[in-house]
């Protein structure tokens, strides 16, 4: 009798589970009819990941390859936009440059937010300028913008140049070892020291210590594993539920390290009446101000969040840009020779000194960097979240609040209509004559519109200083350890090579 009751109970439990699964599946299938109901073309989603999350969780392809594949699909079908799904939420991939301009600039008030997960209470360092939206973002952005004027860049330049001296010394030392360079690591040590000094006024010591804490914890933000990606999918699919569970996207040890660094540095400056012209000083000054128009001052957690964002975004994207630029120059010796000649001719006019004026004179180097950024934009695509109902101009399509729009930057950069023979590395695309022909919003390595990367000018400056140091005395060729063709790391949302880029170098 007991066994019959147990069997009956088990059948009841199984029945309930099956019913729940059936309800969830039906709910998903109805959600997957969203774009069809709106007469918008779409790529068929897969239960339960949709399209976007499936590429991350199942297909394990890089963000670059994923975006290029979607763009090719849209281009072949001559779509101006088409639908995707993130889990069950609708995403519109926008291909038409005029519509992209509308989202990023003209109709920006409908698209203020990025749509990234933010948990100010449980994961305070997630609430930084790159993630937050609304009025808080507007006020912080307004406060930070003056930090990145050309005048402020000149003030910071000596700090950047001082870090290049350490880079030069390390290059001399490594030359004696007669080993290939993992160029991303060397470039990353340089940019870590630059950002640490310019942002926080601290010496990171990345070249002195192989396991510098700033380098270790900076890399931790980007070194994801499959579990991290699954968690990222979950928190962005169900942000309110994730907050209720107090889920974090920034590792606890990274949070603790940066909170400690900011707290200790702020305390030291206050107690010793120290003032520096750096990013942290702006945050310290903002703590005393009504920064958001509602009588609130900046909290220590908010200060640490902004410092973390500036630090990790600044060192990683710039190191990656230098890596790809040197990779391409190792494949195109004529380009490398021309850049080196320009570097040495300009430096000769400035008594061999790397100063702000000499760096600004290196026009051809700028073209080479711009072409590297076209082929390898640090972020393959950017997202915007609709914050109020939006009617797509020239159509009957109305997008509801909460809908995500994807801007496929790398796809646009490889579009033959904008860049003939797009796989070819050709710096002449950005010559003074040719760059006038580039269509607005067809070149966006730092994003575009009112949420364009605030540190673009600073990033390019440190890239140029780093490349000047790399190239003025050395010639680079590709080492056989570099796997060709390059494959991008599927576990990094920054465009990064899987297996690294290894270069031989010799003094000339």
Verbal overview:
By secondary structure, this protein is α+β, with helices and mostly antiparallel strands. The protein has a single domain (34-507), classed as Cytochrome P450 (Cytochrome p450). It is 52% helix and 7% strand. The chain is built from 19 helices and nine strands. It has helices at 2-31, 34-37, 52-59, 63-76, 97-106, 134-144, 150-175, 183-200, 213-220, 226-237, 239-244, 252-271, 279-287, 300-331, 333-349, 356-360, 363-375, 409-413, 456-471, and strands at 81-86, 89-94, 181-182, 382-385, 390-391, 398-399, 404-407, 474-478, 502-507. The protein has a four-stranded mixed sheet. A hairpin with a 6-residue loop joins strand 5 (390-391) and strand 6. The model has no long low-confidence stretch (mean pLDDT 90).
In short:
The chain is of the alpha+beta class. 52% of the residues lie in helices and 7% in strands.
Spatial order of strands in the largest sheet = 1-2-7-4
Q: What is the helix tally?
A: 19
Domain unit count: 1
Largest sheet: 4 strands, mixed
According to CATH, what is the topology?
Cytochrome p450
> What gyration radius follows from the Cα positions, in whole Å?
25 Å
């Amino acid at each position: 009798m007991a066994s019959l009751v147990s069997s009956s109970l088990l059948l009841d439990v199984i029945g309930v589970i099956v019913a729940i699964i059936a309800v969830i599946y039906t709910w998903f299938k109805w959600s997957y009819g969203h774009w069809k109901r709106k007469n918008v073309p779409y790529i068929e989603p897969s239960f339960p990941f949709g399209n976007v999350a499936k590429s991350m969780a199942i297909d394990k392809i890089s963000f670059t390859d994923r975006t290029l594949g979607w763009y090719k699909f849209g281009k072949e079908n001559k779509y101006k936009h088409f639908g995707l799904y993130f889990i069950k939420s609708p995403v519109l991939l926008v291909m038409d440059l005029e519509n992209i301009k509308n989202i990023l600039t003209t109709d920006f008030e409908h698209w203020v937010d990025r749509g990234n997960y933010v948990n100010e209470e449980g994961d305070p360092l997630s609430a930084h300028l790159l993630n937050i939206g609304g009025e808080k973002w507007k006020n912080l952005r307004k406060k930070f913008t003056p930090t990145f004027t050309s005048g402020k860049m000149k003030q910071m330049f000596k700090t950047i140049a001082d870090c290049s001296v350490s880079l030069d010394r390390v290059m001399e030392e490594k030359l004696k070892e007669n080993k290939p360079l993992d160029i991303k690591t060397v470039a990353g040590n340089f940019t870590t020291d630059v950002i640490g000094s310019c942002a926080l006024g601290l010496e990171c010591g990345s070249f002195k210590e192989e396991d510098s804490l700033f380098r270790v914890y900076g890399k931790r933000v980007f070194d994801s594993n499959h579990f991290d990606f699954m968690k990222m999918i979950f928190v962005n699919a169900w942000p309110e539920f994730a907050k209720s569970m107090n889920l974090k996207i920034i590792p606890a040890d990274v949070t603790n390290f940066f909170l400690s660094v900011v707290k200790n540095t702020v305390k030291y400056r206050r107690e010793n009446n120290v003032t520096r012209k750096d990013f942290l000083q702006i945050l310290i000054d903002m703590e005393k101000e009504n920064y958001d128009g509602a009588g609130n001052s900046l909290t220590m957690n908010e200060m640490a969040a902004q410092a973390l964002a500036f630090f990790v975004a600044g060192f990683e994207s710039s190191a990656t840009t230098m890596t790809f630029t040197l990779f391409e120059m190792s494949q195109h010796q004529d380009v490398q020779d021309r850049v080196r000649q320009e570097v040495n001719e300009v430096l000769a006019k400035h008594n061999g000194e790397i100063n702000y004026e000499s760096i600004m004179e290196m026009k051809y180097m700028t073209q080479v960097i711009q072409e590297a950024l076209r082929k390898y934009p640090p972020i393959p695509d950017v997202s915007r979240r609709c914050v109020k109902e939006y009617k797509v101009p020239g159509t009957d399509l109305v997008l509801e609040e909460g809908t995500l729009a994807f801007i496929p930057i790398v796809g646009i950069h490889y579009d033959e209509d904008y860049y003939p023979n797009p796989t070819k590395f050709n710096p002449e695309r950005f010559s003074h004559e040719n760059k006038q022909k580039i269509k607005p919003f067809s070149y966006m390595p730092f994003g575009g519109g009112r949420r364009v990367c605030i540190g673009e000018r600073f990033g390019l400056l440190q890239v140029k200083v780093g490349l000047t140091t790399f190239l003025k005395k050395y010639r680079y060729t590709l080492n056989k350890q570099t796997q060709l063709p390059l494959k991008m790391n599927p576990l990094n949302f920054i465009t990064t090579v899987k297996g690294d880029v290894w270069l031989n170098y010799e003094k000339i």
